[in-house]
Amino acid sequence: MRATSAACTPNSSTLSFNIDNYTGGVAIWGALPAVFDTTTQAFDRGVHVHARLARVSKKCIDATYESVNVVSQNKAFLINEATAVHFSLASVFNHKIISLTCEQCSQSILSSQLFSLIPHHEHICHHCGYINFTNEACIANPVIELKKNLGDNSIKRKSILPDRRINIDTDQYLGGVQIWGSNPSIIWTASRDEESAIHVRAYADSERRVIDNTYSEVCIDGEYLDIEMIRLWQIQKMIPELMSNVSAVFCPCCDAAQFDKGIYAVIPQTYRKCQQCAFSFSHESKISNPVISILNKFKQGHTHD
User: Which residues contact 59 (CB under 8 A, 6 or more apart)?
Assistant: First the structure.
């Protein structure tokens, strides 16, 4: 493990840094793969960190690590990929997330995969196999202990839509285009509000990144992307049993695309009432997210999706 000074840009697989030194703000997320990707860029797995020394300074840390040792007020807490990514998944739904210790072996419990999206009473310890019970249905993640120590009780904190719009013709970016749905950061210490929208990267060639920003409105090849659909597909793609059950469902009466939100974004349905005309109909058990049909249009001629 390598400790990083306040003026140094880190490059090790594990970052250890004192966030109190970065008065311009620190943000930490679980790194998730792009929902749309026509590049040949490698996916940086792990924990992504932004840090600024001063409010008006450029980021002196903008990188992804296998784990991050966060130091603040003489206390240290390790965030690994599993805790970071599963917090990112759970936080989109703003469910109750707690720090839970196994009654049998005293190890921290992490609700993973589908269990990170659906609150539950039974929590299995992956260290010893003991099943722990909570009176209230919730999700367990050790990173909540760090947030409490920092005085941060939010799961899905207040965010703003950036006043930025972009219209992209993918043929103009020979190096490809990547799209992410933003999700709440684990830690956010900046004085300004966090931006929440659609993040876009575009490359002039395999090496030159010419676009890297978050936008409230994104149009790609004539198709406008819905922020919430992109954000939910980002989560659905991460869970194999969800991804295989997501498709675009259309009303057989009015042909309106159906968009499943909340708990229905993770639980397949067979019977539904059209969200536009109220027609009741049945179909193969599926979760509906119309962005699937839009992104599929972009697949033609690309080797990545």
Answer: 50, 51, 52
Reduced to 3 states (helix: H, G, I; strand: E, B; else coil), residue 213 is strand
For residue range 210-246, list pLDDT tens digits in order.
999 999 999 999 999 999 999 999 999 999 889 999 9
For position 301, what pLDDT does the model report? 52
Q: Hey, how many other C-beta atoms are within 10 angstroms of the C-beta on 49?
A: 28
Place of tokens 């966060």: 70
Average pLDDT, the chain: 89
3-state secondary structure of 99: coil
Distant-in-sequence, close-in-space partners of 247: CB < 8 Å, separation ≥ 6: 286, 287, 288, 289, 292
Q: Which of 111, 147, 101, 302 is nearest to 220 (CA)?
A: 302
Token pair of 123 as six digits: 């929590």
Q: What are phi and psi of 21, to 5 degrees?
A: -80, -15
Q: Please give the single-letter amino acid code of residue 68.
A: V
Cα–Cα distance, 64 to 66 (Å, whole number): 7
CA atoms within 13 A on the CB side of 286: 15
How far, in Å, CA of 149 to CA of 229, rounded?
33
Q: Which two tokens stand for residue 107?
A: 């190890």
